[in-house]
Design goal:
By secondary structure, the chain is α+β, with helices and mostly antiparallel strands. It has one domain: Histidine kinase-like ATPase, C-terminal domain (Heat Shock Protein 90), CATH 3.30.565. Helices cover 30% and strands 28% of the residues. Strands 1-2-3-5-4 form a five-stranded antiparallel beta sheet, covered by helices on one side. The chain is globular, with a radius of gyration of 15 Å.
């Protein structure tokens, strides 16, 4: 399991708190490891000064996105989760190699929950049947 945080910018140069930060986690595609992603999600969202309610929404959304993907994951595969932090948003992309290469259905209760929790949800499949669920939650402006 590689949980080394990385910080990248255009051109691959390291950042020191400006621009965009990307943190990538790779772990076994198994439910037993989802607590690692929930904890990382909460920690990164708190860095962006999300409210406690928004942090909990993000934790639930990442957990739900992973659950949707794990049911079709190749046995023994790795799940990759990329977190991109910008000034006012946290984007999360969860990717796993799948058996069927099918995107999750957008007309399910789970998809509706994801959309309600984070606002922006999308999915994609690449040529190698890796399915990615992308989530983006924006921080509410300060009062």
């Amino acid at each position: 399991m590689d949980t080394t945080p990385t910080s990248v910018a255009d051109g691959g140069s390291a950042l020191s708190g400006a621009g965009r930060d990307v943190v990538s986690l790779r772990l076994p595609a198994a439910g037993a490891y989802l607590s690692v992603l929930r904890t990382a999600t909460a920690s990164l969202a708190s860095r962006l000064d999300f409210t406690i309610d928004d942090i909990e929404d993000l934790r639930i959304a990442v957990d739900e996105a992973c659950a949707m993907l794990l049911v079709q994951a190749v046995p023994g595969a790795e799940l990759t989760c990329d977190f991109e932090l910008t000034g006012d948003a946290l984007a999360v992309a969860v990717t796993v190699p799948t058996l069927d290469g099918e995107e999750p259905s957008r007309d399910t209760f789970a998809w509706t929950v994801l959309t309600a929790l984070v606002g922006e949800v999308d999915s994609a499949v690449d040529a190698d049947r890796r399915v990615t669920l992308s989530l983006r939650k924006r921080r509410e402006p300060s009062a």
